[in-house]
Design goal:
Elements (H helix, E strand, L loop, with lengths): L10 E3 L2 E14 L38 H13 L7 E2 L2 E4 L9 E4 L9 E8 L2 E14 L3 E3 L8 E3 L6 E7 L6 H18 L11 E10 L9 E6 L2 H20 L7 E6 L4 E7 L9 E2 L6 E2 L2 H9 L5 H12 L3 H7 L3 H11 L4 H19 L10 H12 L5 H14 L3 H7 L8 H14 L1 H9 L4 H11 L6 H12 L2
Parallel strand pairs: 12-13
Antiparallel strand pairs: 1-2, 2-10, 2-11, 3-16, 4-5, 4-15, 6-7, 7-10, 8-9, 11-12, 13-14
Helix pairs in contact: 2-3, 5-6, 6-8, 7-8, 7-9, 8-9, 9-10, 12-14, 12-15, 14-15
The chain binds manganese (II) ion.
Manganese (II) ion binds next to loops.
Amino acid sequence: MNTTAKPSKYLKGATGEWEIVVGMEIHAQVTSHSKLFSGASTAFGGDQNSHVSLVDAAMPGMLPVINEECVKQAIRTGLGLRAQINHRSVFDRKNYFYPDLPQGYQISQFKDPIVGEGEVIVDVTPTEQIIVGIERLHLEQDAGKSLHDQSPNESFVDLNRSGVALMEIVSKPDIRSAEEARAYVSKLRTILRYLGTCDGNMEEGSLRADVNVSVRRPGGPLGTRCEIKNVNSIRFIGQAVEVEARRQIAILEDGGKIDQETRLFDPGKGETRAMRSKEEAHDYRYFPDPDLLPLEFDQAYVDALASGLPELPDDKRARFIKDYGLPPYDAGVLVMERESADYFEEVARGRDAKIAANWVINELFGRLNKEGKTIATSPVSAKQLGAIVDLISANTISGKIAKDLFEIVWTEGGDPEAIVEQRGMKQVTDTGAIEKAVDEIIAANPDKVEQAKAKPTMLGWFVGQVMKQTGGKANPQSVNDLLKQKLGI
Ligand code: MN
């Protein structure tokens, strides 16, 4: 456990400290080819109104039919959140008018959701974890989209999203800072992507967060909360929590009170703005949808889905620490994406895992980030990086040459071993050749030799010169040993 003093999570106001309390509702688009109650495509980016069935357009007399794939995805997600799976759940109509909601209601789940309480282990830092409770997960339809920018005096509606399956994942108010809020969404996204139940693409709107923020005196009773709607990046979620908490503190310290309301975050201005107040809150008149039977399945159905789940990030991280002896930080970084973890394991198989982790995290991830690439588009394959690690472990090349080699493989491709052979990059372990270089350097620098005798740290200068003379190919240990011996230090 980390016992060093951590900076306080409390915010300082003019009259003392304040604690932030955050709960979140995340809308995650279910990964499935067709919609929740129709066979229309869910593909992103099609022509307007090209993925719309008669059900999605709410034509009279059309009946919704549940898509079993979406049910399976919700159960799999519930299992990944260590949550209660409810064998009986009910679809309700949530009634409201919106131009892009042709039914006049959204089919959702209200009193009886498919998934109940669960939890997420959130990695706030690579060594600090908190548990955030899950209140529920329910299935519901997405709405369409109003288009106001196609014509100066007309608005249009695109129903491609209408009826797409969403999982609304509601957390308990267990989050205490902007940093924890970011870490929670990031971890939830990682879990969904591991499960393959949501692609987590926030730019395309596959994952959006409604963030409930309130402040209170540390340990005091809960304050009135405001809901910040539809925040669509992890960075913005952190900023929204921070500025909204500051706004509420300023009001309270001025003797005012917080109005419970829905607000919007404006990233450009770095502020939240009122959208609608509780006085205008809708009464949705929920009632069970008469077109749909309650959704029922047995434990055997859940067990079959559970047996098909992949290894999830928390288990994978624990295994990487135990089996490969990796530090928790390295293991945490490697399991963030399933593809990265798989890549690492392919490099590490039968090799020194610590060297493999260093190369994947420092060289490969560093380079991928710099070029805006991902593991999937990496020019260096796991097989190639594994071959580079082999050459290092066998002392065929030095660490410095290995970086040059990585660069060649990155830009030109090819078999690392053959490249080393063809371009004469092998480390010189032949002591005769190294000795020759050492002797030349010593002979050419009598003044430095004198200095080194008085000041042994001068050794580093000599090592540098010999390495330069041998094009970085001399074995550093042999160079060190020979120099010490010849300089008498
Ligand atoms: Mn919702």
